[in-house]
């Protein structure tokens, strides 16, 4: 495998749930190979008896591990200290659907959901959105500043040591295609905006 794909030198290889196949964990990706190394399989393994997608479950474990490596002191955290559920959300301060999600945060908090924001300026690290994300991080009250930014308000465009680039790089590793990208505490990822009541239902928290 490494002769064909040198980048897999850093991958983890272990037996898969399917006899005669091995699971390859490479960064946030999961592949499979036959025991003789002749074939690489890029797809999901579904256990027919239970209909469980075993590959997606493994991806969820990997996602949670990568997100857990980011301390909450390097996130903007809004919500209860003892939450019923936790959402980690990659957000762009200039994304209209991120703004809609942010308006729902008080309702989510009221039902015991903690929201942890990571910055993902979709237009890249040399963009105005990146600079505005840095300004939010460097504000005295980050939770207030992110609300101001999402409402199109004026920010104090100061800079300081910040984790915005590392958030962005992590988002790339997790193959985020758009914002908001909502990562649930059970490892699932929900791409795009979902209204609060529907999201609470998906989390098992609806009244």
Reconstruct the topology from this structure.
Layout: E1 12-15, E2 21-26, E3 29-34, E4 40-41, E5 46-47, E6 52-53, H1 54-68, E7 76-78, E8 85-91, H2 96-110, E9 113-119, H3 128-138, H4 142-150, H5 164-173, E10 181-184, E11 189-191, H6 196-202
Parallel strand pairs: 8-9
Antiparallel strand pairs: 1-2, 2-3, 3-4, 5-6, 7-9, 8-10, 10-11
Task: Walk me through this protein's architecture.
With 207 residues, the chain is of the alpha+beta class. Helices cover 32% and strands 22% of the residues. It is built from 6 helices and 11 strands. The chain has helices at residues 54-68, 96-110, 128-138, 142-150, 164-173, 196-202, and strands at 12-15, 21-26, 29-34, 40-41, 46-47, 52-53, 76-78, 85-91, 113-119, 181-184, 189-191. The strands form 3 sheets. The chain has a 5-stranded mixed sheet with strand order 7-9-8-10-11, sandwiched between helices. A 4-stranded antiparallel sheet has the order 1-2-3-4. A hairpin with a 4-residue loop joins strand 5 (46-47) and strand 6 (52-53). Helix 3 (128-138) packs antiparallel against helix 4. It is globular and about 60 Å long. The N and C termini lie far apart (51 Å). The model has no long low-confidence stretch (mean pLDDT 94).
């Amino acid at each position: 495998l490494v002769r064909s794909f040198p980048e897999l030198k850093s991958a983890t290889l272990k037996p898969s749930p399917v006899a005669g196949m091995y699971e390859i964990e490479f960064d946030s990706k999961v592949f499979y190979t036959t025991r003789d190394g002749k074939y690489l399989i890029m797809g999901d393994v579904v256990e027919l008896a239970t209909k469980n997608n075993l590959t997606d479950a493994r991806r969820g474990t990997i996602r949670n591990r990568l997100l857990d490596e980011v301390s909450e002191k390097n996130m903007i955290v809004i919500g209860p200290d003892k939450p019923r559920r936790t959402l980690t959300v990659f957000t762009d301060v200039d994304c209209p659907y991120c703004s809609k999600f942010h308006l729902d945060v008080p309702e989510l908090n009221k039902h015991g959901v903690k929201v942890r924001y990571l910055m993902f300026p979709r237009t890249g690290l040399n963009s105005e959105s990146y600079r505005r994300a840095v300004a939010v991080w460097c504000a005295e009250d980050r939770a207030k500043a992110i609300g101001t930014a999402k409402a199109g308000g004026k920010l104090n465009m100061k800079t300081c040591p910040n984790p915005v680039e590392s958030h962005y790089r992590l988002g790339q590793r997790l193959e985020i295609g758009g914002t908001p990208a909502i990562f649930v505490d059970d490892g699932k990822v929900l791409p795009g905006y979902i209204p609060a009541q529907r999201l609470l239902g998906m989390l098992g928290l609806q009244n």
